[in-house]
Design goal:
Shape: globular
Number of helices: 5
Radius of gyration: 13 Å
């Protein structure tokens, strides 16, 4: 699994704008992959993991950096 990274607000907004551009061009799969690079709020990641499991969470392809920063690196192994 590639190492996820946190982003500044400016970086998040820039990625979001690019996602919208790609969707307008009909490049939905590329837009989805790019959108997945934006870190998701830790509490949402924890909820998903608690209710659907770690394996399901890891299969999403989401950027989990914020959750790892909040809950520690062992969050993705237990």
């Amino acid at each position: 699994m590639p190492q996820a990274q946190t982003m500044t607000l400016h970086e998040r907004l820039a990625v979001g704008a690019k996602v919208v551009e790609l969707e307008k061009l009909g490049k939905f799969e590329e837009a989805k992959c790019l959108h997945n690079t934006i870190p998701i709020q830790p509490y949402l990641i924890k909820f998903y993991k608690d209710h659907l499991g770690l394996e399901a969470l890891l299969k999403t392809g989401w950027n989990l950096a914020a959750a790892v920063e909040e809950y520690g690196s062992e969050f993705l192994t237990r």
